[in-house]
Design goal:
The protein is mostly beta strands. The protein has 1 helix and 11 strands, in the order βββαββββββββ. Helices cover 5% and strands 58% of the residues.
Length: 124
Amino acid sequence: QVQLVESGGGSVQSGGPLRLTCASTEATFRAYCMGWFRQVPGKKREEVARLEYFGRTYDPIYSDSVKGRFTISQDNTKNTLYLQMTNLTPEDTAMYYCGAYLPSEAGCDALHEWGQGTLVVVSS
């Protein structure tokens, strides 16, 4: 949490867009893969999107539930991660967290650190 701060959450109508922002540090961006996950009461954490790094390129990975609707990106000059969400539905309502994942030869699937979260509420 001391390195990741989410913002941009709020209430939005179904079908509308919303953009989330995660402020990080240069050290975090250099050492970890960055991504987003969400969680709702009574359910386990759901991975939303992640930027896998293979050598020289960042490859976006999305969950099936958000593929085609959400776009993850980052600005390395600002150490900032974004999640552009479109065509939101009530099922997208959740607390969204920015996460730092440990890189490995198999990928970046080990969550190491996350922020305080930002709440997204989608109404019908």
